[in-house]
Sequence to fold (260 residues):
Amino acid sequence: MKTICIMNLKGGVGKTVTADNVAAILAADHGKRVLLIDADHQGNTSRFFLLEEMIVSTLRDILAGDSEPYWPENVYSTGHVGLEIIPADMALAELDTAPERDPRAVWRLRSFLEAVAEDDAYDYTIIDMPPAFSLAARAALAAADEVIVPIKLDAFSVYGMAELLRQVRAMNRVNPNLTLAGVLVTMWHNADIVTQAERVLRSGSFPVFKTVIRRTDRVDESTFQRQPLVVYSPRSAACVDYRAMVREYLERGADCGQEV
Fold:
C-alpha cells in the first residue's frame, strides 16, 4: 500500500479537489482499492462524500488513541466502488490546543496504516492535508511515502514552495523514506502571468508533473453536487486533466519520488 499526502500550506490551490478526484480516478478508472483520509479539521473532503449525521468516528479518534487496535470502525463507504474514507471534523483541531501534548499521537496514524497494510485491504491511501503544519499534518507525513503539492500559479504560491519543502524536509528526520512525487499545477489558464510563473516553477530543482489541471467551473459545480468529476462531468477539462495526471503518476512506476 502506498500512502500519498496532498499538501500545500497555502489554501485555495485545489488541494482538496485534487485529493478527492485523484482518489476517485484511481478507484474508478484503474480498479485500485483506495482509502481517502481527511486530515483537515475543516472537513471538506468528509462533507463531500458523507452526510454529517453519518459520521461517528473520525481521524481525531485515531490520533488520540481512542480507536486502536480495531481499525475498520473508522472507515466509511463513500458510495463509490473501491473508495472508502476516514473523515475529520473540527474536533481534530482540539489536538493542537490541548494543554498537554501526547508525544505518541504523531505516530498513531503510522501504526494504524501499518495495521491496514497487513490486512491488504487497499492499494493506495490518499491524505487530504490541512493548510498548516498541524499535529494531523505531522502524523500524516510520518506515515506517508510521498507528497504531491498542488499549486496555483501566483507569486505567493511559488514563493511559498521553499517554506513548504523546508517543513517536509524536517519530517525526513522521523520518516526518511518520505519523497516528493511532484508539484501539480492547478487552475491553469492561458494568461501571460500563468505561463511565466509556470516557466519559473519548471526551472526549479524539484519535480513538476507534465500534466496541468485546467481551470473550469465544472470543478465548483461538482462540489455542490458532491460528486467527483469522473461521475459529475467526465468530459470536462479538469477531469480529462486529472485522469491524465493519474496515468502519468502510475506510468512513472514505483520509487520515482525525489528526496525533499
